[in-house]
Amino acid sequence: MPHTLYRNFTTQAEIDAQYNAGASVPDAAACMRHYADQAKRARATLPCLLDVPYGATLDETLDIFPAAEPNAPVWVFIHGGYWRALSSKDFSGVALGPQALGFTTVVVNYSLCPWVTIDEIVRQVRASLAWVVRNIANHNGDPVRIVLGGHSAGGHLTAMALQTPWAERYGLPDNPIAAAVLVSGIYDLHPLRYSYLQPAIQLDDGVIQRNSPGLRVQATPTPLLVTWGAQESAEFARQSTDFHKGWVASGGRSELLSQEGANHFSAVHGFEDAASPLCQWMARAVR
Fold first, then answer.
1. 95 in a domain, yes or no?
2. Above pLDDT 70, what percent of the chain?
3. CATH no. for residue 256?
4. Does the bond joining 53 to the residue before it have cis omega, within 30 degrees of 0?
């Protein structure tokens, strides 16, 4: 009888078929071009302050797109790339929709595997949020109306940030995040240990246990929108649904949204359009 690697999967090929997002769409290169085009448009048309340091290393920077008016709600976005690719510059386009709704937008950059561990990436993301809470008022942002969100690995990092003991570690309020949008995230890292990603992300039991927010969901008062593309694999849908259920079961508020017609890469296109369900949910959350 074949040995089970994870759930009902017995081979790497089965796991890769579920978790290799790039192989799941007809033209992944076109998806990357879309990101690049929208990012260029955002930086060309919106006021922006790029590469603002939030930590000691060269990768610890923020790209800020200030709102026109002070005390604006704040949108903080954490990019994906399976912790080993892409940067904040690839996702400037996520500022387009929220900016039209009066948000100050912050896009977080962080170091990548295998040069650093996922533990270190989580630390950097938490440090970036602490910086935002303390400093965003200088960029027309309201630090008590922060919407945090991320895509793919960024969805995972968003979930990890929500589990931060902010008062204990940073001297901040216990729950500084007003709302969160998690897009196509991975909340249990176990299957990736047996995937094509393992040489880059180097998972072991300790990393998995420390960085799988779906294993020990502890809800905070932060309301969530948990979403993914309806064309994504069954595992992406299950990971999102399970995290949503855990958040609700532990006393939190969460909404599920399967985006009809969207794949793993287009599931974030809504942030480019102020009228999209994603942007409208954000606006309601901080109204």
1. yes
2. 100
3. 3.40.50.1820
4. no
